[in-house]
C-alpha cells in the first residue's frame, strides 16, 4: 500500500483525520487491508496529499486507539493482528450508514425524486 490509498477531500466538512480513520475502517472491513499489512508512513501520506503530518499522525493514533492499527517497533504502523477483515455485508453496510443518511437528507433538501438519485448512484457504483 502506498499513500495514494487514501482519498482525502480537503473541502469536506469532515476533518481530514476522521476521513483517514473511516477509510482505514472500511478498507479493513472489506479485506483490502489485512492484519499485519504495513501502512504508508506519516511523512509519505502527508507529502502525497499536501497535508500536515500531525493530521496523519493523529489519524493513525486514533486508529491505533480503536484497535485498528498497531505500532511495530522500527517498522511503522500496521493493521492490527486482532482485526478481522472481510466483515459481513451487514457490518460493511453499517459503515456506510452515516453517508447514506447524509445523502438522503441532502436529496430531500434539493427535492430530488428518489428514483433519480438511485439511478445516479447506480451509475456511480458501476464506474
Automatic annotation (TrEMBL):
Keywords: DNA-binding, Transcription, Transcription regulation. InterPro entries: Tscrpt_reg_HTH_GntR (IPR000524), WH-like_DNA-bd_sf (IPR036388), WH_DNA-bd_sf (IPR036390). Pfam families: GntR (PF00392). The keyword Nuclease does not apply. PROSITE patterns: HTH_GNTR. The keyword Transcription applies. Residues 14-82 form the HTH gntR-type domain. It comes from the Bacteria. One of its GO terms (molecular function) is DNA binding. SMART domains: HTH_GNTR. PANTHER family: GNTR-FAMILY TRANSCRIPTIONAL REGULATOR, HTH-TYPE TRANSCRIPTIONAL REPRESSOR YTRA. This is GntR family transcriptional regulator. It comes from Dyella japonica A8.
Amino acid at each position: 500500500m502506498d499513500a495514494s490509498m487514501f482519498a482525502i477531500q480537503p473541502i469536506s466538512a469532515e476533518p481530514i483525520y476522521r476521513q483517514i480513520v473511516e477509510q482505514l475502517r472500511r478498507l479493513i472491513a472489506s479485506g483490502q487491508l489485512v492484519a499485519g499489512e504495513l501502512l504508508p508512513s506519516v511523512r509519505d501520506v502527508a507529502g502525497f496529499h499536501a497535508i500536515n503530518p500531525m493530521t496523519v499522525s493523529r489519524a493513525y493514533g486514533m486508529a491505533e486507539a480503536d484497535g485498528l492499527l498497531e505500532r511495530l517497533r522500527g517498522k511503522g504502523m500496521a493493521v492490527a493482528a486482532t482485526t478481522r477483515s472481510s466483515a459481513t455485508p451487514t457490518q460493511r453496510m453499517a459503515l456506510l450508514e452515516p453517508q447514506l443518511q447524509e445523502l438522503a437528507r441532502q436529496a430531500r433538501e434539493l427535492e430530488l425524486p428518489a428514483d433519480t438519485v438511485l439511478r445516479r448512484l447506480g451509475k456511480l457504483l458501476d464506474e
